[in-house]
Amino acid sequence: MLKTRIIPCLDCKDGRVVKGVRFEGLRDAGSPAELAAAYERQGADEIVVLDISATTEGRNAALATVRAVRRELAIPLTVGGGVGSAEQAGVLLDAGADKVSVNSAAVRDPSIIEAIANRFGRQCAVIAIDAARKGAAWEVVTHSGKNRTGLDVIAWVRESVERGAGEVLLTSFDRDGTRSGYDLELLTAVSSAVSVPVIASGGAAHAEHLLDALRAGATDVLAASIFHDGDLTVGAVKAYLAQHGARVRL
Length: 250
Description:
This protein has 250 residues and is α/β, with parallel strands linked by helices. Helices cover 36% and strands 28% of the residues. The protein contains ten helices and twelve strands. It has helices spanning 32-42, 63-72, 86-95, 104-108, 111-120, 153-162, 184-193, 207-216, 225-228, 234-243; strands spanning 6-13, 16-21, 24-30, 47-51, 77-80, 99-102, 125-134, 137-142, 147-152, 167-172, 198-201, 220-223. Helix 1 (32-42) packs parallel to helix 2 (63-72), helix 3 (86-95) packs across helix 5 and helix 8 (207-216) packs across helix 10 (234-243).
């Protein structure tokens, strides 16, 4: 059985790490390269860098940021933001990414998932899904939650995996930045629908929330605020999870 990954997330805008609530009210959280290096020293298993303004500004993720972060890391790096083709994914991989996440562009043209998976392998193709609750189900949202797509999350995650996505980065739009815990019902529904790894994102305030996510079905957990604000180190989270039966790399 694979061990659970603890993954700090660096949401970036204009070359800086930022954090907000539901992608609004952004505040500066530091240098991407410096934070990535610090988190690796703390024991992070992977780093995710998301250029949160790339899609709305109609560009690819900032390559200078990717290169700067890569120079500091020996652990895997996933990069997303504005990726609209396999060619653009290749540019990010050449800049130092190990995996590329796609979100809005895949909703517009799902064949992008296949193109990336076929060219670089399923292990490089990550489908990022921002899910907003809609009645008893969830709807896929894009453009930092501004665009309601009408797509059912469960149907979309199944299609994405069928098309070649090797991982699912699942963010609860409703919980993002709120520190109210992950959407456990969402995690259970998605993890039950597919057989690839599901990374929980959106809402963590303390280590117990990460444990809750794993017990709800997530294979791995991603967090931002708790690490950026210095509430917890990656090592402290891992120690807590290990004490409660989770398989983590110590």
